């Protein structure tokens, strides 16, 4: 059978947040004949392996913490059985699968043709799609969007420089308080698996020399993601990449090829969905070191506060979590250019302060806001 050739106005390669939104708007709002191609599951990193399953898992952990904390509030609550991981995982996976279906129905509602397969550019206006059964289709398009996202990065070291030192130090101390053993400034050199037991041995080097971790049950690389561009055919279309392999695109998503655009994680500007290190951590704008680098130390003033959230007042000292906030301000008017918070409720309170910072709020604007008492958020408008 001869290869099938399809034509459209707009071809979207990648079915994550950026690709789906663009495809639906192009077709549903502007009436552009659009085809969307995704090789894995619709929804991208966020829905399938990122913020959605992470937040659901965090909620389960929060319930476990609440059971532990309930004793401080006078409850006699004991877990009657171990946590049922299989039940939880199956239910979480079913929820994600339902979201995949919703995304596919939304594409249909906006008259976007959806193809499940792997797309590779063969020219500036053409791509070859390998379907699940191994057959191939050629798609010709006037315009092409590359929104293929990223994949887990194989580690080269220990990252963390993108967080404000206040956040780094506090999270590190909290991990250690909870019993997490941290091997700082370490580089993994070799991973070995015992085929009989399934246990892992991690070889690493740090400031003390070479060492090993033995009898490791599972290993998770959680150090960022790399652009998912292997096999995408960028060279055939002449699309330029930077030294990290990310597609180079300007603020309007233009690549160097006039018919090809790119957005999302694959261009490496801001990989939203936000910070995955902890649900109780938030960051807006510049960290202190970035602000000093950009504007000079003499033009930067920082406000810091550290306190015990009201939730923890009933608990023993060893059970109290940290709460720390920081404002990074610029110039004599003290425009807020960075806001960093760590503690209970951070994820929920951050959105509103993000709007304020984006609108150019100053420290004076924060100070003039009536504090809602008793809350942790009030500390951000009463800092001295």
TrEMBL record:
<dbReference type="Pfam" id="PF02852">
    <property type="entry name" value="Pyr_redox_dim"/>
</dbReference>
<feature type="domain" description="FAD/NAD(P)-binding">
    <location>
        <begin position="163"/>
        <end position="280"/>
    </location>
</feature>
<feature type="domain" description="FAD/NAD(P)-binding">
    <location>
        <begin position="9"/>
        <end position="161"/>
    </location>
</feature>
<dbReference type="GO" id="GO:0050660">
    <property type="term" value="F:flavin adenine dinucleotide binding"/>
</dbReference>
<dbReference type="InterPro" id="IPR023753">
    <property type="entry name" value="FAD/NAD-binding_dom"/>
</dbReference>
<dbReference type="GO" id="GO:0006749">
    <property type="term" value="P:glutathione metabolic process"/>
</dbReference>
<dbReference type="InterPro" id="IPR046952">
    <property type="entry name" value="GSHR/TRXR-like"/>
</dbReference>
<keyword id="KW-0274">FAD</keyword>
<keyword id="KW-0676">Redox-active center</keyword>
<dbReference type="Pfam" id="PF07992">
    <property type="entry name" value="Pyr_redox_2"/>
</dbReference>
<keyword id="KW-0560">Oxidoreductase</keyword>
<keyword id="KW-1015">Disulfide bond</keyword>
<protein>
    <submittedName>
        <fullName>Uncharacterized protein</fullName>
    </submittedName>
</protein>
<dbReference type="GO" id="GO:0004362">
    <property type="term" value="F:glutathione-disulfide reductase (NADPH) activity"/>
</dbReference>
<dbReference type="GO" id="GO:0045454">
    <property type="term" value="P:cell redox homeostasis"/>
</dbReference>
<dbReference type="GO" id="GO:0005739">
    <property type="term" value="C:mitochondrion"/>
</dbReference>
<dbReference type="InterPro" id="IPR004099">
    <property type="entry name" value="Pyr_nucl-diS_OxRdtase_dimer"/>
</dbReference>
<dbReference type="GO" id="GO:0034599">
    <property type="term" value="P:cellular response to oxidative stress"/>
</dbReference>
<keyword id="KW-0285">Flavoprotein</keyword>
<feature type="domain" description="Pyridine nucleotide-disulphide oxidoreductase dimerisation">
    <location>
        <begin position="281"/>
        <end position="383"/>
    </location>
</feature>
<dbReference type="InterPro" id="IPR016156">
    <property type="entry name" value="FAD/NAD-linked_Rdtase_dimer_sf"/>
</dbReference>
<dbReference type="InterPro" id="IPR036188">
    <property type="entry name" value="FAD/NAD-bd_sf"/>
</dbReference>
<dbReference type="InterPro" id="IPR012999">
    <property type="entry name" value="Pyr_OxRdtase_I_AS"/>
</dbReference>
<dbReference type="GO" id="GO:0005829">
    <property type="term" value="C:cytosol"/>
</dbReference>
<comment type="similarity">
    <text>Belongs to the class-I pyridine nucleotide-disulfide oxidoreductase family.</text>
</comment>
